[in-house]
Amino acid sequence: MEGVYLERPAPALTRLDAAIARLTALGHTEEAESLTSLAARLRDED
What we know:
Layout: H1 4-7, H2 9-25, H3 29-45
């Protein structure tokens, strides 16, 4: 991930969490897994 997301991880994580919840609710678990992994990496960098 590049750009402003690296400088402002909190807003990016908020949007990622919302996207993960929506994808999961719609039954798109595989897509949600990749976003969950990305969110975990951003949290680890904080």
